[in-house]
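Sorry to interrupt, but I need a hand with the structure work. Please put the record directly below this note.
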Amino acid sequence: MTRLLSAATLFALCNSWSGLRADTKSDQETTANDPAIIAGDAKLETLWEEGGFTEGAAVSPTGQIYFSDFGQPFDARPARIMKFDPATKKTSVHSADSKMANGLMFDRRGRLIACCASPIGGARALVQVGSDGSIKTLVGQFEGKRFNSPNDLVIDRQGRIYFSDPKYVGPEKMELPSMDVYRYDPDGTLVRVTKDITKPNGVNLSPDGKTLYVAETDNGTAQAETDMDATPGRMTLNAFPVKPDGSLGTKRVLVNFGKQTGIDGMTVDKKGNIYAAVRSAD
């Protein structure tokens, strides 16, 4: 059973979460025991355990925690967006049918933006989630072809949305020839910002907005539910300089996980430390 854990204590699970120093080139320093990262009196809490497969936690401007919940198996019920209230400790349904919403983030106007994946009638699009839980597509195609399975997003100070478009599961056919990272601008412009990642997953920005972090988590297949023997590809964490116009500079590999499974989601604190959900044992 999948559990949503409080963000303040989730980092204490050092086998699942690692604190990575974003300002170093090669060290892979684990800071799970650093009191500057995790308070000595931090405790692990189970906040909710009634879901199937949780993803994409995001904090609203009012402090509510929104997260995605997929049915297990996927066709057991529609995917949902849930809302946890820290004041009451209660969780409620915000969107009863999120069209497979995965990564979530609030923009500076307070709008909830989501990446909707492909399986079981997913929207395969970057969407806006209304206050009533409704789903409105912002963009669903690149050069006339549907996205693969949008996964994660991050929004910069200018309101530009960077999002990843891999595909891991589901029978849906890919229309695009590759899995890439895109930028959706406030004026509606859509740009593919890099093809230099074989399979992008989590994305985030440095506090100054000058670096885009991209997790490359290549499991070797777009249909993991049937292709059990796929050979994994690259598993890395990468940094791209962000130019003033929003385009990206040359990729720099921060961490190479080798044969271990790489990063799913990640976040960055105000000091620039990266916190990443990983499955690697080291």
